[in-house]
Design a protein that fits this description.
alpha+beta; three-stranded antiparallel beta sheet
Length: about 160
């Protein structure tokens, strides 16, 4: 690092980070003497939702109340999401690269799918560019549309065991 100088910072560069809050759902019981029903911020605009409620999601920055997530806080502008919402959107941000389509007659290796372990009888097979595993068309579609990750890549880099 002594011989490498960092590139100059551009003054016009814009940050690509998004500030997010992760509120927990809070429910006060009717037996709690300190519990006070309140309106959520959604009730201010929408009259056909229920009125006062005991629980909801509270913005960690300004404590504004919301009934559902994801939402942008109307008070402080913080994006409020739950961890599962964020996890489900991850595959949209980093999609799985397309597998290489190869005619079966040009492929010299074994013609067994690494996903379903079945013999590939189609005209084409699909090869992951990272792990080089071979997949049938059904497993290729399943990996891209449902799993959003390559089963061969996951198998080569297993999750470390819990302590």
């Amino acid at each position: 690092m002594q011989h490498v100088s960092p590139p100059p910072a551009c003054s016009s560069s814009e940050s690509s980070l998004i500030r997010m809050g992760f509120p927990q759902h809070t429910i006060a019981s009717l037996s709690d003497l300190d519990a006070k029903p309140s309106f959520s911020m959604a009730h201010l605009e929408n009259n056909n939702e229920p009125g006062l409620t005991l629980g909801g999601y509270f913005c960690p920055q300004c404590r504004a109340k919301y009934c559902e997530l994801p939402v942008e806080c109307k008070v402080c502008g913080l994006t409020l999401v739950s961890a599962p919402h964020l996890a489900r959107s991850y595959h949209h941000l980093f999609p799985l690269d397309a597998f290489q389509e190869v005619p079966v007659e040009l492929y010299k290796g074994e013609r067994y799918c690494q996903g379903c372990q079945g013999e590939i009888k189609d005209q084409h097979l699909y090869i992951c560019k990272v792990c080089q595993n071979v997949f049938c068309v059904e497993c290729d579609l399943f990996a891209h549309d449902t799993l959003h990750c390559c089963p061969g890549c996951i198998h080569k880099h297993p999750v470390p065991p819990c302590l």
